[in-house]
């Protein structure tokens, strides 16, 4: 089988590319496993100063692979490993992000998007709960905005994502906008960079350590509920679920 996470190395930057466009880079067991392995390799590479996480296709990550979802505990482990990585992780987004994909943005240290990207916490429309991803996101997001978008599943654009704290920046040319960011990381001392990352990620790491296991259990329980089965069936059948008004 071809890899769904590809790694490249240049100028002290390891770029990890989610490359499963057929399912919109959804969080399958395979993708989560390969991404965890690639991050571990980048963390152990003395030549890598930072990691860029990007994607192929028009979607950065569509959230859980509904046909073959990963174990919530494995997804939780991935999120914790990104926050614990001793090197900054920078998300580069040029497409859409949905549900669990927003959790990946939440644990990245910096996140930049190009034009046309959109965002939505789609879980409630499927009878699901944004459980595990709430741990890294609630410490970062504007509380009123988090309540609105978690509850309503409304889509929003990159400018709004910056305003509420989901993204660091957005620009017409995301690579040009990221150039000074990556240059700054390249000039930083590796040990100083690691310790500074620990400072700025403290609230996210604390939330994941405190609440992660319970949230993973909640996610698994809700995913097996009758309401979720109806929501997922409706999605596959391209109809509204029975509760929709």
From TrEMBL:
Gene3D superfamilies: 2-enoyl-CoA Hydratase, Chain A, domain 1, Lyase 2-enoyl-coa Hydratase, Chain A, domain 2. It holds the Pfam family ECH_1. Signal peptide: none annotated. Belongs to the enoyl-CoA hydratase/isomerase family. This is Enoyl-CoA hydratase family protein. It comes from Streptomyces antimicrobicus.
């Amino acid at each position: 089988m071809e890899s769904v996470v590809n790694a490249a190395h240049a100028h002290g930057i390891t770029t990890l590319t989610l490359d499963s466009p057929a399912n919109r880079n959804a969080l399958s067991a395979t993708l989560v496993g390969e991404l965890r392995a690639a991050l571990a390799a980048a963390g152990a590479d003395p030549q890598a100063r930072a990691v860029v996480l990007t994607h192929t296709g028009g979607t950065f990550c569509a959230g859980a692979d509904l046909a073959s979802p990963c174990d919530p505990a494995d997804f939780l482990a991935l999120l914790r490993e990104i926050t614990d990585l001793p090197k900054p992780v920078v998300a580069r987004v040029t497409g859409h992000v949905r549900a669990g994909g927003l959790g990946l943005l939440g644990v990245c240290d910096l996140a930049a998007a190009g034009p046309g990207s959109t965002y939505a916490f789609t879980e409630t429309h499927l009878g699901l709960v944004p459980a595990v991803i709430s741990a890294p996101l609630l410490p970062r997001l504007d509380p009123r905005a988090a309540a609105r978008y978690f509850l309503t599943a409304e889509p929003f654009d990159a400018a709004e994502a910056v305003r509420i704290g989901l993204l660091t920046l957005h620009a017409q040319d995301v690579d040009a906008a990221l150039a000074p960011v990556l240059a700054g990381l390249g000039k930083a001392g590796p040990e100083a960079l690691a310790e500074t990352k620990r400072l700025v990620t403290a609230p996210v790491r604390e939330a994941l350590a405190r609440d992660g296991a319970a949230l993973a259990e909640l996610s698994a329980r809700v995913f097996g509920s009758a309401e979720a089965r109806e929501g997922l069936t409706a999605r596959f059948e391209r109809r509204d679920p029975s509760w929709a008004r």
